[in-house]
């Protein structure tokens, strides 16, 4: 019964938003409260669950998203995004631009969490799209496919790292296997799939594209790239430092502090305010206006992301995900396929790739061992399952929809389908690798 309620709530949520045109934030609140009541949650606990779901989701994202939006607005208004787009245009040409975007997302996605990478790279997507006069979805999806694959498949991202520990997998082997599986998934779900979407138009409400500036007023390409990707460089640099100086506790602690995404973003904003603002002749008060405008642009996006966390929290605390997992565990399937299926269903129900992966890990752990699945491939099977069919209960779905100005239908046909392709292609690659390595 609980499982039917869960699926019913998701259907009602889609209908409220897509058919009844209810504000997305309100729709999430209504469905979350209704789900809590139907699933038997004590009435007194519901407000606390709402606060926890909203707070936990925004607590880890709000600062990064707001600072990322500020950086994105500054990168756009200073002409840095225009400079990067111009160089990409000259280097790759329109014919290969989606491959360039995939490569950028692949590199940036290794050290950065998905949401951090998204808000940092979105102004480049806007600038490239406007410079080439191409649809935002066609330009942006390959880059975001790369980011998503990196987030779900490879350490040092949260879910893969936790899975490596839980399954006693080898970190280096998991990373290498993950790269082998990730590359075809990125190519097919990125540049190749993007060709299908080349005619998909959108109407973004977030204005990350500034007026075109003459070439002599643009910052240099080095300044533009370093300023735009400084958080990536900071996090990557501090990660290397912790490995090199692993015996020096003081250095490691300092590196981890500076490499925290929030601290890295704060440092980047301070540095970029000078490199892209003050040094270019802008007054500090004018730069602050840019930052205020950026925060206004994403206010509703933040609320929508937070409200998606409320529904996820209701499903977690009522135990409905565990009920679903018990049903699936009774299926007689090969271990890697069963692990993928359990994780994929949990992803459909819970939204969060990380939570789906970690929840599935506890269920499928007995399938790993000398007479079971290879632990490194099990990490990847769970990781690929955790990316399956992102939809309305996933904050990334709303980031993509709201930033690119798409309808619910368009987001399903682009973002959700891309995530499904990534997940299924990943599974196929894992099963093939299992046959080659352990037949």
- Major β-sheet profile: none
Q: Roughly how many Å apart are the termini?
A: 41 Å
Strand proportion, as a percent range, falls in: under 5%
Give the overall pLDDT as a whole number: 84
The counted number of beta strands is 0
- Number of helices, counting only DSSP H or I runs of 4 residues or more: 20
Structural class: mainly alpha
Radius of gyration: 22 Å
- Helix content estimate: over 70%
Given as residue ranges, the uncertain stretches (5+ residues, pLDDT < 50) are none
What order do the helices and strands follow?
HHHHHHHHHHHHHHHHHHHH
The backbone outline, from C-alpha atoms, is globular
Protein name: Gluconate transporter
Family: Belongs to the GntP permease family.
GO molecular function, one term: gluconate transmembrane transporter activity
Pfam family, one: GntP_permease
What are the SSEs and their pairings?
Blueprint: H1 2-18, H2 24-38, H3 46-77, H4 80-92, H5 97-109, H6 114-132, H7 136-153, H8 158-166, H9 171-194, H10 221-244, H11 249-259, H12 261-277, H13 284-297, H14 299-317, H15 320-329, H16 335-350, H17 353-364, H18 375-385, H19 395-404, H20 408-438
Could you please describe the fold and organization of this structure?
The chain is mainly alpha-helical and 439 residues long. It has a domain at 58-152 and 174-192 and 207-299. It has helices spanning 2-18, 24-38, 46-77, 80-92, 97-109, 114-132, 136-153, 158-166, 171-194, 221-244, 249-259, 261-277, 284-297, 299-317, 320-329, 335-350, 353-364, 375-385, 395-404, 408-438.
